[in-house]
Amino acid sequence: MKKLFIMAFAVVATALAPNAFAQKTKMVGGAPMYPTKDIVDNAVNSKDHTTLVAAVKAAGLVETLKGDGPFTVFAPTNEAFNKLPEGTVATLLKPENKATLTKVLTYHVVAGRLSAADLMAKVKEGKGKTELTTVSGGKLWVMQQGKKLYLVDEKGGKSWVTIADVFQKNGVIHVVNTVLMPK
């Protein structure tokens, strides 16, 4: 009987292990990202995402990203925003450019909770790439090189996922190293 219990426990533990691992707290921008908090409540603590947080606030998207979701967010770092031509971020943050800013930010969001494993499976199904429709209505293509994922935007720009699977209570964040641009 004891052996049967141990075997049953091992089967249950194995079945639950991937989910437990997926919910692990990760460090992003020097701060823990708690799977029990929403996307915004975690992002505000990352020193690597201050520009993104300011942009989300300027676009009026805070309440949306605090909502139930689930969302998959490809979150550009400050360094990614710094790659844009000089003055671009300041221009986008102006109130008169809110619509453009909103389009750029929602181009980084996909409905649903897509882990790196989910994305890799879709890439495999798609024979090397998969197309995602963003919340803004644009298209992104996900591809894989070795064990790394990268995205290609509608203008042909390429962005690598540098930190994958930062799970939140309302979705998942994948940190990216370049701002993705819609048409």
UniProtKB/TrEMBL annotation:
Keyword flag Signal: yes
Ranges of residues in domain FAS1: 36-180
Signal sequence segment: 1-22
SMART domains reported in the protein's UniProt record: FAS1
Endoplasmic reticulum found in the keyword field: no
Keyword field: Signal
Any one cellular-component term (Gene Ontology): extracellular space
InterPro entries xref list: Adhesion/Biosynth-related, FAS1_dom_sf, FAS1_domain
This protein's name: Fasciclin domain-containing protein
